[in-house]
Amino acid sequence: MSTASSSRGKRSAVVVVTSPSPVRKTGASLPQSGVASSLTPQKSDRLMATSMSEGSTTCSPSSKSQAAEAIQRVETWEQAEILTDDEAWDFRSQDKSETQGRNSMLPGDGRRSGIAMDMANKYANELLQRGKTALESAGNMKREFKLTAIQCLQSLYETCLALSDSRSRHMLSLERERSRHAREIVAIERAHSKKIAEVTKNLTSEVASARNDLTANLEQTKAIRSWLGYETLEPYKRIEDILKSTSEIKATVAKWNLSRDLPTKTLTEAELQPLKEQQTRLLQTVQTLSQQLDELRRGQHKTLENTTTLQTMSQEIQVRLSSREHSVPTEITTENPSSQHHLPQLKNDLQPITERLDAVSSELRTMRQLKERTPPPPAPSVRTEMALADIVRQIRQPTYAHVASKPSVPRPNHTLIISSTDPKNTGDNVIEKIRVALDCKKTGAKVEKVRKAKNQKVVISCGTREDMKLVQCQVQKKDDLKVEIAKASNPLLRIADVLSYH
To answer: Where are the compositionally biased (Low complexity) regions (predicted)?
Structure first.
């Protein structure tokens, strides 16, 4: 900081060292007008003209050269442009020539490598003092002209300081606005990240629940397949037995045909009767076996079709589980067999699975439609987030007043009345003896309430009967203490206006 004062001690100015960066903090205390405030514009012009005419004959060549040099420097000096766009304030993308700002009229002091001192205001103050000294050294100039010239120089200096101060305030306002926008952007990003985390958590839970449902359906399908394999094992064995019986019958019939073709003796009617009956029985057996074979073939065909349908359904469920969408098929239908006869038991067993799959499909379809129709919620503001955080913190941390305001839960009353055998002991002495006898840290006895009663007695309340018995046993070990369980008194009943009816 550089401080300069006039020779008369009537004006003072403070010049603060500024940085050549686009954001510079400059503070100046504007001097007062002083003596020049008492002069009118007409008097000032008249005094200036007289002083210039008189001073032109007395100024030395050195003072003239100094004045010309000062005028030339003031004319060539340019005010730095104020950067207002966001790109100009990005210091990382600017080179050294762009971040210098206003070129100083004097070089920096070199004490710091990263900051150059702006000496424009200091040099303006030096020019002011040199001008005042030159005016005061002129002996043949009138006092009024000198005051007018000094006032003009002082006004120029004040204008320079005011422009520097105004520019610094403008830059400070721009920086404040930029920081405010940055804070708002950070708040918006935090709210957005929080909302995305909530949505991701909800979607993860929904996908996990759908995956569990599909796993349960897969287990049920496997159980049905194993059950079908167990149920079809017995029909396969029966078919094998029927095939063996049929082969034996065919062999027997072939032998009988061969024996019939051979020349035999004539059989009587009595001998042929058993053969006819046996033939009739064989024909009935063959017909029955034929019908059973037909039914078994139809049942086998039906079972194969149902098994194929179940395998197709299981493959579809596995494909949908491995897909990215993790969605349940909207509708699962089973093909009706071409035959009119089917197994009702298999249909009854498959009905609950089909109904459950349909219910899951309808629920997923409804959830998908609601999700498409529901608009995205607006992002909450910073004030709303802070209010919600305060509410959650207050709910999670109940205060003492909140807990005390709740009514106490009625519980059974387990009370002991303890007194001392020595009539000289007071209630405080009895309480101290009870504390020594109980020793809650070692025995683990729990006492909820202790109060003093009349006649040096102490009433102790316990939460449970076990705690009461433990306290009673510990107190009975002391010879100078008596303990008894409080007995519930009979309830009192108040009947009003009894005598008025007699």
So the answer is: 14-23
CATH number for the domain that contains residue 456: 3.30.70.330
- Pairs from 86-92 (Cβ < 8 Å, separation ≥ 24): 86/178, 88/22, 89/22, 89/23, 89/174, 89/178, 91/21, 91/22
Enumerate the β-bridge partners of residue 145.
none
Domain boundaries, position 81: 2-187
Q: Tell me 38's DSSP state.
A: G
* Overall number of domains in the chain: 3
- Dihedral angle over CA of 248, 249, 254, 256, nearest 10: 120
With 0.85 as the threshold, say if the pTM is over it: no
Per-residue pLDDT reduced to its tens digit, 168-206: 788 888 898 889 899 999 999 999 999 999 999 999 999
Considering 120-124, 302-306, 345-349, the range whose residues carry the highest mean pLDDT is 302-306
Beta-bridge partner residues of 483: 418
Q: Does a structural domain hold residue 204?
A: yes
Look at the block and give the residue holding tokens 């002495």. Answer: 429
Domain shared by 48 and 146, yes or no: yes
Q: Are residues 201 and 328 in the same domain?
A: yes
CB 486 within 8 A of CB 459: yes
Q: Please tell me the distance from the alpha carbon of residue 301 to that of residue 311, in angstroms, as a whole number.
A: 15
Query: Which residue, 144, 9, 134, 18, is CA-closest to 70?
Result: 134
* Residue 466, number of CB atoms within 10 A of its CB: 12
Which residues contact residue 423 at a Cβ distance below 8 angstroms, ignoring those fewer than 6 apart? 456
